[in-house]
Amino acid sequence: MEKVGWRASSVSPRREVDRRNRVTVTEMGLVEKAEVGRKRAEFRRRSCYHRFLYSSGGEAAKQQAELEEEDGFAMGSEGSAAVVVPRNFRLLEELERGEKGIGDGTVSYGMDDADDIYMRSWTGTIIGPPNTVHEGRIYQLKLFCDTDYPDRPPTVRFQTRINMTCVHQETGMVEPSLFPMLGNWQREHTMQDILISLKKEMSAPQNRRLHQPHDGNWCVH
What we know:
The protein is built from six helices and six strands; from the N terminus they run αββαααββββαα. By secondary structure, the chain is of the alpha+beta class. The strands form two sheets. The protein has a four-stranded antiparallel sheet. Strands 1-2 form a two-stranded antiparallel ribbon. 21% of the residues are buried.
């Protein structure tokens, strides 16, 4: 029997078209493949993070790895991975970003104690912006990321004396009620965002011409 028109009327299942959504089966397969790749990448990140914690030693580190396995990488009701990044892994990403450098180098930060597995204490540096009273000055800050970071903002304190409307003049603490980045904190904000925002605040009309104290540090411990 001659198979006339067989090739013309037969369509490979991989090329069938969903007429309602106008999406081919092949395209749907690509979406599924991308999702699998995303989950594999997340698994590799999680494994790397937990290897870091376990290699740091100590029962506390192991317990934290187990807790953040449950809290940060819990699976949703439909099997989708939660998007909340565990605290220590988030800080590892920030550490790597800080080591690579930020923009033109007028803002930088790094971790104080490489042996602190909870990565709590950090030092930031801001070079004062041009055309302000802060031009040419180098300001050092201390940022402390407690165990609830990044759900709650770090505490930020200028070590170098500075006169700014959002900085307490006796302690050097940045006041959250006067600094929107801290007062309206969101989990996706980072230490880099804080430093960049403080540098912009130096150029704000209320700060750019303020009389500045002599160079020196606050005597706060």
